[in-house]
Design a protein that fits this description.
homodimer, 8-stranded parallel barrel, globular
Chain lengths: 730, 730
């Protein structure tokens, strides 16, 4: 029988209590390490992971060891001993280079397959005893294997005969923060910026380490810590010293530091009167800055650049191309091994169709970028809408290293107020076949670099967490962060499997909880589409803040910042004609994609109004008219939220009260907002269609005029926006 | 012998661990309830507080019971049982009205003395058994007594023969928040506003309850939750619904809800084209709003008003007086029992001496305010400077209810970066004798309402905590909050005793820690004075943010927003002549105060330059010249910080690492800033005095020009300020 001494029993029980106490506010994300409650399962794991052997010494290995001590200590309900004696049930971690034990296992072939960041987890005889081994070619791989093993235990997987060979499919797995230096976060809904500039470098908040752990557990290997609308001060000496302190914290977790830079920095610093990338003085300025950065951060990753986009400066201001601009920077980083992420989010105000902007701008430059430039392309052609077709740049830049940019922060998904698991959105885009080099040229495969033999490719996610105790505001925004990271490692995973992992690690392994919550999550993105912009409608948001609806919006700073620009609704119908009779943006896709999207009969109905202007009476596959279908979708969206509420409310008592009540309250807000979206859009479109809302449906709660008033007067939670304090009343 | 069963032992140890886990980030403030570690002491308390008897039912009593369960559960390391059976060592709490046990104790005389909010704690025979009793006239008094008893245990006081009769000396004990509705906090350095407007009223963050507990534990009985620079939307229906949800959370803790209002609301709501207080339409508008507020919050406390001050609208705009403005509002609240806190922080740009502003404005109106108006006067005549003489309005408004406003948030004390315990500042002002009605007319006594027989009087503290995990940014800002609350209850307490209580509750009862930390705290305010503005200098801050030094500042929006306005330094000397040869502000004090302050020979040297313009060669009591003394003070300030650092660093290991390292890092920043202050001021004043820095002192680290550059380029942590993102570079 397995026996515990009294002190052990006390320690063990205490860990349980302490863990529970910590867990209730969401701070620990998916690294909660709750004790296994099934006693047989616990016993099995305790035998299989009796103690830990780490040979070699490095900051990364120390991080792995610390994680095992915290993780196994919590999960297995006892303190973890680490020494170099092999026992039955030892866990041995290391690389052939730093661990003679690992070197002796002859894993060379398997290790050769998993590359510099991958790992092998396998049962093996070590010194004639059965042991579990995490082996990798680098300490970084060992750390990733450590998190993988912990995930298996967290989700109660069987370790018997375990054999895992895993390597990331995508090379650059990067999170982006849109944090301003005054600590306001653009499109951030989880508090102030995590980076406490005022007390850096002196004070390293312990939270920085937890941030690194959270990302490393997913295999994230880079972070851009400041807003793409970049404050030039980030490159000043005083800030580089602060940035270096953060880089020091992140380094043992394999997370490289990148910075967003302001293209006009040489001018804004007051050193030059130009930022022309072909000017030798400008080149020298940037070279000196790069050298300075690397003197602070020897493994600095590189720059992220938003240039000539939404008012940001760029090479166009000097009559130069994006390639000129990117290459000049890339050349200054090249000697140090850095890269430039150059954003393709460019759409000039004078173009006929914003959809076409990035493609028209960048395809002529294909092949003109340096090898250490990676073009960072948003997943869709417009801007992180709840549903977009994939950007036609994926598949159209065969000679330009390319990466994808997803948005995890819910700018268009109800901020921190609505539940919207974006796993299905990510996989929808990643799995779409671009047909760029025949069938099988999926977006995901392009990001692997395999379709076009890119030397560098990647995936970036705009995460925008903040000082809120649970990082993301809505507890379920954590799930999209989790899904992003898991898919950046392996884009072939399913959104549903990822959701289940996340639920198990974040809440509980209780199946009575997992199944309904998985249903809620898998339904949530489509619900968000339905009550906002179904059937391929897009961008009907109130201007600026993007929270509530304003389908009537027809005046703004730019035509493509209005809603009417996108829906083009009139008495004769609705939708944006992007076929050859319209903007012909559809021609930016390869056949057969362009043919399917361009054909009213074949286009998927959920993208219908993205590509076609269609009469209100158009007959849909359901047999209903477009009007009826559209109205039906809006109503369905609200019903989906109501179902989510019922499902959630039935889970009371299965998890801690704090998170349960929080989500419950937020779902109430979501229902209220969904009704407002539904009514605003249906009533507004009705003024154009002139058609009735089917009698079987509940009446709109308020008049169109009322909802129009709300656009001006309803409080919008948007702390980052200075103008938010001067909104109108009532 | 006292014996524990195994389950009890486990539970007990677990509480210890869980408490420790929670405690390390400062979230629990002084309500940490750490287990008593001395076993004899623990045993004594366990016997003296064996279980809890609460007769009667009310939300306030439930709050008291919950606090005892949490508090004694933690402190005594075991779960607390509550039922109505008297045992040996029972703690019986209640009022004669709701508890027959209490009613039977014949405490009537003692209870009569402690009034509606006070309490009696006493050993008594209850049902023939020795019990400890917390008795009060109201449930609110019971709650205050509960916190008092917990404090005694937290600070390890002996309960044998305990007999306490306590009542607040000051009636209105109110905290003020300067929170904007977009959640940015003006002069707040602890994160975003605590009030999550976007998810209220649906979601009541559990933190709201902890906020109420923290304040109630000090006896705070009111809170003004929004900025005095008030967004009119706070009075809209949508916000009142949110405010009411907060009021519901605060009510069981005896904390009344007050709101800052914008005087022009009737106009800004678009309902009227005037806000003239004598216009019947305006009166009707405010009456309707008041009725509406009370329909949401039946026990609403009233308004705080900043009118005709720093650009805020007010009655002057309509040719009316402050009394006209305040009385109109007071009349609309009167039927509901509400009050108006009317701020006296008024200084017109055209006056000769800002010092004189409030007095000149308000003394002519003495006696003209309604009974339910209370004039809220800042402690000093200028604006929360590290040292100010008391405001001459204290003692000059015999017929106007008056309260004091202190600032806890460190606008002028280094934000969340510098350690500055303000207990000594508060007591310095409170204990000063105004001589308004002869000797003994201290400021504190005026606030008791006793000098002038005010029907209402009080103390307000601007606290500005935020979403930072530890509420206040710098852990030691908590101590000033604590001191404010304790002094509002009893202004005769000493700053040192309060510091000790706070240290014991917040960190540890270990004397080896208490003594040096108490020294640090007691020294810290004077250190802050010395390195910023010794000998009665004041307001030498960089414009706007008030963090770093700019004694050279001579241009600004207003003359009294420059530094030169205050120090008046020139070749001939330094200081503001406020005697009869100058602005004669000193005449606003009663004799003999005016005579002492006005007499160069008698004025306390730490107020010298507040009242006198003095030659650089003036001989000080020390025998040094003014110049030497001034330079010496600046250098002393830096040395004090260095001593604080050494003292703190020696405490490593006595408390949790997280808070230890945080404070240590902040003290490094404070030393850096103190040097910058010292050098900036000494080098700048030297350009005028032409005198040498004594050779024995260390040389300034940088040139004056360098420090002037820093004013523009050095990063200032000021998230609330939108302009902070456009500061110059390097």
């Amino acid at each position: 029988m397995f026996k515990l001494s009294l002190p052990s029993l006390i320690l063990l029980t205490c860990i349980l209590v302490a863990q529970t106490a910590f867990a209730e506010d969401g701070y620990e994300m998916w690294l909660r390490y709750q004790p296994i409650t099934d006693s047989q399962q616990l016993k099995n794991y305790q035998q299989q992971l009796s103690h830990v052997v780490v040979e070699g010494e490095s900051p990364v290995l120390s991080a792995a060891r610390a994680e095992l001590e915290a993780g196994l200590g919590g999960l297995l309900n006892r303190s973890v001993t680490t020494d170099n004696k092999i026992k039955k049930g030892s866990l041995v971690i290391g690389t052939p280079a730093n661990s003679p034990l690992i070197a002796g296992l002859k894993l060379d072939e398997r290790l050769a397959q998993v590359g510099p960041e991958g790992f092998v987890i396998t049962q093996a005889k070590v010194n004639k005893r059965n042991a579990l081994v995490i082996a990798a070619n680098t300490d970084q791989g060992v750390l990733y294997g450590t998190y993988h093993l912990l995930r298996l235990v967290q989700t109660h997987q069987d370790l018997t005969n375990l054999s895992v060979d895993s390597a990331p499919r995508i090379q650059y797995r990067v999170v982006n923060h849109w944090d301003n230096l005054n600590r306001l976060v653009e499109r951030g809904y989880g508090g102030l910026s995590l980076w406490e500039w005022g007390s850096l470098p002196e004070h390293k908040n312990p939270r920085y380490t937890d941030y690194a752990r959270i990302n490393a557990s997913l295999g994230i290997n880079g972070t851009v810590i400041n807003n793409v609308n970049a404050d030039p001060r980030i490159l000043s000496d005083q800030f580089l010293e602060k940035v270096a302190a953060l880089a020091d914290v992140f380094r043992p977790y394999g997370i490289k530091m990148y910075l967003s830079i302001n293209y006009d920095s040489p001018r804004l610093f007051g050193d030059l009167d130009t930022a022309d990338p072909l000017d030798p003085q400008v080149q020298a300025w940037w070279q000196a800055r790069a050298d300075k950065i690397y003197s602070y951060i020897p493994d600095f990753g590189g720059y992220l650049v938003k240039a000539d986009s939404e008012g940001q400066p760029g090479p166009h201001g000097y009559g130069r191309t994006h390639a000129d601009g990117a290459n000049m920077l890339a050349d200054t980083l090249k000697p140090h091994g850095g890269v430039v992420f150059w954003r393709a989010f460019v759409y000039n105000p004078d173009i006929q169709d914003r959809f076409r902007g990035a493609y028209d701008e960048f395809t002529p430059l294909d092949g003109k970028f340096r090898e250490n430039v990676i073009l960072q392309v948003k997943n869709g052609p417009i801007d992180f809408q709840p549903r977009e077709p994939f950007s036609p740049l994926f598949g159209s830049m065969p000679n330009t290293n390319t990466m994808m940019e997803f948005q995890i922060t819910q700018e268009y998904f109800g901020f921190d107020k609505h539940l919207a698991y974006q796993g299905p959105l990510f996989t929808e885009n990643l799995n779409t076949d671009t047909h760029a080099k025949g069938p099988g040229s999926t977006v995901g495969k392009i990001l692997e670099g395999k379709v076009f033999n890119y030397s560098r490719a990647g995936m970036a996610g705009v995460i925008n967490p903040g000082t809120d105790r649970n990082w993301t505001g809505h507890p379920f925004v954590q799930s999209s962060w989790y899904a992003f990271g898991r898919l950046a490692w392996d884009h072939t995973l399913s959104a549903e499997d990822i959701a289940e992992e996340w639920i198990r690690m974040t809440f509980t392994n209780n199946p009575a909880f997992i199944e309904p919550v998985k249903e809620i999550m898998m339904e949530s993105r489509e619900a968000g589409v339905n009550y906002r912009n179904p059937l391929g409608l897009t961008h009907l948001y109130a201007q600026g803040h993007h929270y509530g609806p304003a389908p009537w919006l027809d005046q703004s700073g730019r035509a493509d910042w209005t809603a009417t620009y996108y829906h083009r609704a009139s008495k004769d119908g609705i939708g944006f004609d992007r076929t050859s009779t319209g903007s012909n943006a559809v021609a930016q896709y390869h056949p057969p994609v362009r043919d399917v999207y361009g054909d009213l009969k074949r286009v998927p109905e959920d993208l219908l109004l993205w590509f076609h202007h269609v009469p209100w009476t158009h007959q849909m596959k359901s047999g209903k008219t477009l009007w009826e279908e559209l109205v039906g979708k809006y109503y369905e969206g609200v019903e989906q939220v109501r179902t989510m509420q019922k499902q959630w409310d039935a889970l009371e008592g299965m998890i801690d009260e704090a998170r349960f009540e929080h989500v419950k309250a937020l779902l109430k807000i979501q229902e209220r907002d969904a009704i407002r979206w539904r009514d605003s859009c249906v009533l507004y479109f009705q003024t154009l269609s002139g058609l009735p809302i089917p009698a079987a449906l509940e009446k709109p709660q308020q008049s169109l005029e009322h909802y129009k008033t709300l656009e001006r007067t309803h409080y919008v939670p948007e702390p980052w926006h200075p103008a938010s304090s001067s909104r109108a009343l009532r």
